[in-house]
Specification:
Blueprint (H helix, E strand, L loop, with lengths): L1 H24 L17 H22 L8 H14 L8 H19 L7 E5 L5 E4 L4 E4 L16 H10 L2 E3 L10 H9 L4 E2 L25 E5 L4 E13 L2 E9 L5 E4 L9 H4 L2 H4 L4 E3 L7 H8 L3 E2 L17 H7 L13 E5 L6
Parallel strand pairs: 3-4, 4-5, 9-10, 10-11
Antiparallel strand pairs: 1-2, 1-12, 2-3, 6-7, 7-8, 8-9
Length: 359
């Protein structure tokens, strides 16, 4: 028993050292920032110092406790700390929040650049509903934007970062026309690299870019082939005829990789009438990972309809929204209390999906 205890303690110390090394590699300060004697008559500086303090410690906690099943309490606490920061009205204008966004995206980009997938899939979460999915043979982007929807130019990513992300992707899917999902400059970057951009029929219909966009048919349960990688690979795609509301068309895209893995990104799906086809998706396809908008109509019914092996909600804390619609990570723990495995992720995080480990 003593030997077992010592072995366990040694393993813990080794893991702690490895985690500490990873934190230092990412340039994340472990210690608290030095504070001045006071912030009298400097409320703005006080709030910026406090925000930076919280984000530094949260960053460290998220690196120590990355996305995983089951989720440790420490990670859940870190996600709720992010809510407290992002629900500040001035969050997108705070340098510490801007740095958090840029730094974590750059770390993600480095990881994407250096990751080969031999089994399952890697998923990277970007801002809002931006997601990159990579299997052994294909890399797919969903709703990637620079972040100008935050209404802060300093928060938004520079074009060169998007260019590098586009270099790593084979295709970009855009769910609908709202600027927190559709960014014409991002689409232009993909198209200039010969990467197809797939979008609903109403996006940028009055712009020159429109005729370069791929408009797949919006037909429930019907597989269409999309040539990618300069025509060397045909990606299986189903574009479900979704809607955010009666006036906003929204593609719900299911892609099936050559390995037979499937990923469904819902965009801002919310129209209740669409449950006519949502209720049937899981009967037609095996859905590995569902990436829904976290505030979608009836999460339980949505989950049962798609019947996924894993749920990764998105669209939390869009900083361009008013506080009442900056969807909190805290809300997800309640809304998505469904009988399916789920993982909450924030900007700049990744998760290796291994179907063999899922129930």
């Amino acid at each position: 028993m003593l030997l077992s205890l010592l072995a366990g303690l040694l393993s813990t110390l080794i893991l702690s050292c490895n985690q500490e090394s990873k934190i230092q590699e990412h340039g994340v300060p472990v210690e608290l920032l030095q504070a001045p004697a006071n912030f009298f008559d400097k409320p703005g500086e006080y709030l910026e110092w406090q925000t930076k303090q919280i984000l530094n410690l949260t960053d460290s906690a998220l690196l120590r406790f990355p996305p995983q099943l089951p989720e440790p309490l420490e990670r859940q606490m870190a996600m709720l700390m992010l809510d407290a920061v992002f629900h500040d009205v001035e969050a997108p204008n705070r340098p510490s929040v801007q740095d958090f966004h840029h730094r974590r995206t750059l770390n993600t980009l480095e990881e994407i650049n250096n990751t080969e997938v031999n089994n399952g899939a890697m998923l990277w979460k970007l801002y809002n509903m931006g997601v990159v999915v990579r299997t052994k043979t294909v890399t797919v982007g969903f709703d990637i934007t620079r972040g100008y929807s935050s209404r802060s130019e300093d928060f938004a990513l520079p074009d060169n970062i998007i260019q590098e992300i586009a270099d790593q992707c084979d295709v970009l899917f855009i769910s609908h026309q709202h600027r927190d999902h559709a960014d014409e400059a991002v689409a232009r970057i993909f198209l200039d690299r010969g990467k197809p951009v797939v979008a609903p029929p109403d996006i940028w219909s009055d712009r020159p870019i429109y005729n370069e966009i791929t408009h797949l048919e919006r037909k429930a349960h019907e597989v269409q082939l999309l040539p990618v990688q300069s025509g060397n690979l045909n990606l299986e795609v189903v574009v479900y005829p979704g809607n955010q509301n009666a006036n906003t068309v929204n593609n719900v895209t299911l892609i099936i990789s050559p390995e037979g893995l499937s990923f469904c990104h819902t965009g801002d799906q919310a129209l209740r009438d669409d449950f006519l086809w949502i209720d049937e998706v899981g009967k037609h396809f095996k859905v590995d990972v569902l990436i829904p908008n976290c505030w979608t109509t009836d999460p339980l019914r949505t989950s049962k309809g798609f019947n996924p092996k894993l749920i990764i909600p998105a669209h939390e804390n869009e900083l361009g929204h008013t506080i009442d619609h900056r969807e909190a990570y805290a809300l997800n723990y309640s809304r998505w209390n469904v009988p399916y495995p789920k993982i909450l992720m924030t900007w700049g995080e990744s998760y290796h999906y291994n179907p063999q480990l899922m129930k």
